[in-house]
Amino acid sequence: MYDIIIIGGGPAGLTAALYAKRANKSVLVIEKATFGGQITYSPKVENIPGFISLSGNEFAEKLIEQVLEQGAEVEMAEVSGITKGDNFTIHTDSGDFEGKTVIIATGAKHRMLGLDHEEQFVGEGISFCAVCDGAFYEGKTVAVIGGGNSALQEAILLSDLAKKVYLVQNLDYLTGEQKLQEQLYSKENVEIILGTVVKELLGDSELVGIKVENEAGERTLDIDGMFVAIGLIPQNEPFSEHIALNSWGYADSAEDCKTSTNGIFVAGDCRSKRIRQVATAAADGAIAALAAVDFIDSK
Questions:
Q1: In angstroms, what is the C-alpha Rg of the chain?
Q2: For this structure, is 129 an active site residue?
Q3: pLDDT per residue over 276-295, tens digit each?
Q4: Would you state the torsion angle of the CA atoms of residues 76, 79, 83, 89, taken in this order, to the nearest 10 degrees?
Q5: Which pLDDT value is given to residue 43?
Q6: Which long-range contacts (CB under 8 A, 24 or more apart) does 90-93 make?
Q7: Which of 57, 72, 97, 248 could form an SS bridge with 17, CB 3.0 to 4.6 Å?
Q8: DSSP class of residue 139?
Q9: What is the pLDDT of residue 57?
Q10: Rounded to an integer, what distance in angstroms lies between the CA atom of residue 234 and that of residue 77?
Q11: Catalytic residue among 3, 86, 93, 133
Q12: Residue 130: which of 107, 114, 105, 153 has the closest Cα?
């Protein structure tokens, strides 16, 4: 029996583990893939307080080392569901675990294009965050894939850094806000390509170009990097019985990180929020952990 079981080993989950252990609670962190989460895809990170620069993997290693040093336990397993009784039973492909409280910090994965070699190029030319990685492409040529608010914001930010920005949208129109569209169309170094899909990624060890296709035929774009902004998929499906989700599948939780079920908390990118960065994930982790501690101590 654990005081707190944390599902997800990204910055939110690991920060929650750190704060829970500092409060002298027993903690288990369950992660199905990679400790560190999406940040491990970033080759260089410069917006984490206390570090001038480090890779996402380096940050993840430091964080998990810190959590283990505090005495948290970790388990590599995929969670399939939760059963609520007097306590909570977490069902995984490695067996069941029981806890007094649960923190769901499963994050959200980036929606991919579904092309050959796409996973191979993540971190080697494919990025998902202009705020995180845009500086690497100063004076270079990049493509942004998508046409919603996120894609337009990415393209606008990159236009101030890159020599050339292609915005490739599969629909015949942009779906982002009109003000963002106007701002983007005013940028002389931005070329907006509508009604066009990416058909192929070019390069060996790193991305050097893409083949795109529309009714007029195929075209090759020589680029140094590509930012995919076609949406996120929150990883909340196994928990929908116990937490309220909004229409996009995010946990419908306020800044207190509480859910519709007493004893279950959420933290990080799986929660409904406007800004998804390492700093905000860590903040959620601290808030959720302290809320779980208060819940246990009040019983």
A1: 21
A2: yes
A3: 888 999 999 999 999 999 99
A4: 0
A5: 67
A6: 90/5, 90/7, 90/30, 92/30
A7: 72
A8: T
A9: 86
A10: 18
A11: 133
A12: 153
User: Taking the CB of residue 250, how many other CB atoms lie within 10 A of it?
Assistant: 19
Q: Are 53 and 46 in contact (CB under 8 A)?
A: yes
Token pair for residue 54? 């480090």
| Active-site pick, 96, 116, 129, 222 | 129
Which of 104, 99, 109, 111 is closest to 251 using CA atoms? 104
* Phi and psi based region of residue 285 (left: phi greater than 0; alpha: psi -120 to 50; beta: remaining): alpha
Angle at 125 between CA 208 and CA 181, to 5 degrees: 95
150 pLDDT band, cuts 50/70/90, is: confident
Is residue 270 part of the annotated active site? The answer reads no
Q: Does 132 qualify as catalytic in the annotation?
A: yes
Q: Which two tokens stand for residue 156?
A: 């606008």
Express the helix, strand and coil content of the chain in percent, nearest 5 each: 30, 30, 40
Q: What Å distances lie between residue 189 and 54, 138, 162, 166, CA to CA? A: 30, 13, 8, 9
Beta strands in the chain (DSSP E): 2-7, 27-31, 73-76, 79-84, 88-92, 95-104, 108-110, 126-127, 141-145, 164-168, 190-193, 197-203, 207-214, 217-222, 225-228, 232-234, 264-266
Q: How far is CA 197 from the centre of its chain?
A: 24
